[in-house]
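Record format v2
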Amino acid sequence: MAFSKFGLSPSILKGVKAMGYVDPTPIQLRAIPLLMEGRDVIGSAQTGTGKTAAFALPILTRLDQPKGFPRALILEPTRELAAQVETAFRDFARFTQFQIAVLYGGVGYGRQLDALKTGSDIVVGTPGRLLDHLQRGTCKLDRIEFVVLDEADRMLDMGFLPDVRRILERCPRHRQTSLFSATIPPEIETLIQWAMRKPETIEIGARRAPAETVRHAVYPVAEDQKNDLLLTLLDQVQYDSVIVFCRTKHRADRVAQLLKRANHAVAVLHSNRTQREREQALRGFRDGRFEVLVATDIAARGLDIADVSHVVNYDVPQHPEDYVHRIGRTGRAQATGDAFTIMVTEDARHMEAIERFIGRSIERCKLPGFDYHYTILMDAEKQRRGIVPGRVTGVRLSGGYFFGPAKRRRR
Ligand code: AMP
């Protein structure tokens, strides 16, 4: 089925065509007809499935004509996502006169006030800054017809649900509400009951599965060789663009320095960076000026960065969902990508939790030519593969080494 069958307005269809979309993705196939009918929709699709267009195209069609006051509200957990969704709306609406305002914190009010004064039809924002505008009376939601709660589970993680409720209380009850979330924990369920009317749930693929086009590999290594392994991995892999995920801002800065010293063109993305620095990092990465983006989970959540060929987890994520979100940066919209995870001994438990979560085991790999130090992981690996009988206990087992003889490297 083509986009032309959905009953989208001709100018919006033209925008879709200009974006180069030919066939709708599964979430678009299922969500667009329901949203066009006026139904409330819960979408449990992940990022990278085309969910932005799934909600944006029906909203733009049903808004019909610009009226000069906010009628559609899209709530996003992070500024980057808000900026990205605003860009998507602008792209789809490029042959229309709709005005779009994007409201997020960390920047001045000037441009946002201008956008609101010129009469925006669509407001995309993060909860904190939007509440500021509501309290100052600079934005009004009393004529909102469409609400989208995007990445609702991340809004919950970030403690935004009370703000989301306050915002929804300012919107008319008679409206269309859609909610997108990779998981539906009880708090979101409560929000759904309160904020939505007879919603239809759309689940695309297994809720937990990472993009199927991604190849996964785990690289076990001793703690003191993590940096060397990362550098060697980047040397050996043919990549176009790679995101390296770290557990903390501090570690992200340290890894970025390491890569810079090794002559990689590196940008860093975490929440201690100013909005301007974050925008520069993202723009430079998208343009190809930086080949490596080092990021923390919160900063990178849901970002649509096209053509990321590789994701490297410098640190194993502590929450299995974060693995799926990180991996979602690659293999987006049917492209293939590789996802590498560097694992040290203390990560073994988290790695197993990830494998249980995604319902498959991930191959342990060894970098050819890398001078491995011994780690208990190597024995554990033999156990996994049944090379040595017995259980993996975390106790050093006798026998040879799965990764070859242990050698201490002289520094
Ligand atoms: P999203 O899940 O909305 O972040 O979209 C992920 C990526 O897929 C974005 O780069 C979109 O521009 C792209 N995309 C969305 N829908 C389609 C489609 N029907 N055909 C091709 N690309 C698409």
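The domain at 3-204 is CATH 3.40.50.300 (Rossmann fold).
The first helix runs from residue 10 to 18.
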